[in-house]
Design brief:
Layout (H helix, E strand, L loop, with lengths): L14 E3 L12 E8 L2 E6 L1 H4 L2 H8 L4
Antiparallel strand pairs: 1-2, 2-3
Length: 64
């Protein structure tokens, strides 16, 4: 991903723990499930588990 079109802030009370059953996805890559409203859920990914060490290093050296 090169850019984001939208960011959303969620209060901690809107984030549930990762469910025990997630089809086809290793649970260690998911931080939790965010609830935006009654009809929308977000799967929150753990980027520190997904990214390679080289990608993490590149992010840390980026100028904002």
């Amino acid at each position: 991903m090169d850019e984001a079109s939208q960011t959303i802030r969620l209060d901690e009370d809107k984030i549930d723990p990762t469910p025990d059953i997630i089809s086809g996805i290793d649970k260690r890559y998911i931080i939790g499930v965010g609830k935006i409203d009654e009809d929308r859920l977000l799967i929150l990914l753990d980027l520190m588990e997904i990214l390679t060490n080289e990608e993490k290093d590149a992010i840390e050296t980026m100028e904002l």
